Every structure is written in structure tokens, then in C-alpha cells.
């Protein structure tokens, strides 16, 4: 029996305190995804590194500014990886039900439930 393929997904926001850790927690229960989160700011709880970018199969950013920062700082590590921008502003608390609904809805077409 072959093991289902696992996709490494990296969620990125600014501080890694609200949006990306919420996404990480929401999608951590998926058996087909391995998830981590990081922030683009130097003082983020878990700052984004080239190692994390290299680890990821798909990078999910919350805003266009995050996509630009990832592309600028980690161009060589990106190596043509798929990047998804959700356009979710920094208006939500950690594990905010409205944020969970938005994350789930916006990522449904990219990571359909199996």
C-alpha cells in the first residue's frame, strides 16, 4: 500500500502571531499536509528563513507585501515554488472564528479535502 503524498505548506504573515499561526493550527490536522508558519519581520515570533522556504512545497502568504518580501529576500531558495496570496488583512485575533472561516474558504480550491 503506497503512502499518500504529503505537501509541505508554509504559512507566512508579518509577525507570526495571529494569521499564520492560526492557519498552521487549522491545517495541522490534515493528514495530507505538513504545516509550519513564519513571519517576514525580523522580530517575528518565528522569523522566516531560507531553510523554511526550501522546506516548503507551497508558500501561503496573507498579503501581497509578504509575497514581495519572500520573493526579494529568498529568490534563490524559492526555485519556482508555488506561492498563494490570500489577501487577508491584519484585522483578526489568533484563532478568530471569522479568520478560520476565511482561511478555510480561500484555501479550499488549493487544498481540497481528501
Protein topology:
Blueprint lengths: L6 E7 L5 H9 L5 E7 L10 H6 L2 E4 L2 H10 L1 H4 L3 E4 L11 H11 L7
Parallel strand pairs: 1-2, 1-3, 3-4
Spell out the key features of this protein.
5 helices; 114 residues; Phosphotyrosine protein phosphatase I domain-containing protein; Rossmann fold; 4 strands; UCP029416_PTP; alpha/beta
Overview of this protein structure:
- This is Phosphotyrosine protein phosphatase I domain-containing protein.
- The structure is a single chain.
- The longest helix is centred in the C-terminal third of the chain and has 11 residues.
- The protein starts with 6 loop residues before the first strand and ends in a 7-residue tail after the last helix.
- Strands 2-1-3-4 form a four-stranded parallel sheet.
- The model has no long low-confidence stretch (mean pLDDT about 95).
- The chain is of the alpha/beta class and about 110 residues long.
Amino acid at each position: 500500500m503506497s503512502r499518500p503524498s504529503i505537501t509541505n505548506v508554509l504559512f507566512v504573515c508579518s509577525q507570526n502571531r495571529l494569521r499564520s499561526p492560526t492557519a498552521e493550527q487549522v491545517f495541522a490536522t490534515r493528514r495530507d499536509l505538513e504545516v509550519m508558519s513564519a513571519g517576514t519581520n525580523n522580530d517575528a515570533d518565528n522569523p522566516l528563513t531560507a531553510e523554511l522556504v526550501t522546506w516548503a512545497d507551497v508558500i501561503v502568504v496573507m498579503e501581497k507585501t509578504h509575497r514581495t518580501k519572500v520573493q526579494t529576500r529568498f529568490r534563490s531558495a524559492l526555485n519556482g515554488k508555488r506561492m498563494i496570496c490570500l489577501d487577508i488583512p491584519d484585522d483578526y485575533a489568533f484563532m478568530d472564528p471569522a479568520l478560520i472561516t476565511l482561511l478555510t474558504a480561500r484555501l479550499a480550491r488549493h487544498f481540497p479535502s481528501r
